[in-house]
Amino acid sequence: MTRKLVVWSSNASIPASAMNATTAVLIDSGNLQLIFEQDILWQSFDHPSDTLLPSMKLSLNKITGQQACLTSWAALDDPQRGLFSVGIDPKLPRQLINWKGNATYWRNSSVKIRAVLSPTGQFNLLLWNDKSRRWLEVWREPLNKRDFYAECGPYSTCDNNGDTLSSQCKCSKGFRTELHKQWAMGDWPGGCVREKALRCDKGEGFEKFEEMKCWGKT
Question: Where does the record place the S-locus glycoprotein domain (predicted)?
Fold first, then answer.
């Protein structure tokens, strides 16, 4: 007879009435939840490992002292609990602290983050640097004009030739533009139209496009 070996457990406190009626659900965010009727009894996002995913939080309960921390692996190929952990400093709740075992390994100062929407529609995330006394850009979108929604219009493609600040739209094979004046001015959303009516019985087929984005209607 094969012996059953428990290799992992949520270690959740489950009421006796729910012992044989709990359901484990892995939702799209990656959060594993134990559910009884409509109640979430336990979820993995409250117990991070070495990765912080969207909707996860590093938290500190000042009453119970319970923390949700990131914990390193023992090695790149060994997921056992490692030496390092990152969480909120119980004495200075606005700071993050990195522990090596029980000893402080590193701590940060208060983090100041600023999100700005520019007049051009670009969304920027800025981080305050105390040393330089400046806001430093750490992220922005869109980076490329090819990411603009429906920049080139129907049946056309965008090619910026490696230049993120400019783009050039062109009609796909078998299509042409009727808006020559607008296109000459860099106004492409009108897109293209077929050069001739589609007739599938005349040897017409499919064209392969790579690294394309298809925009749907909103």
Answer: 100-177
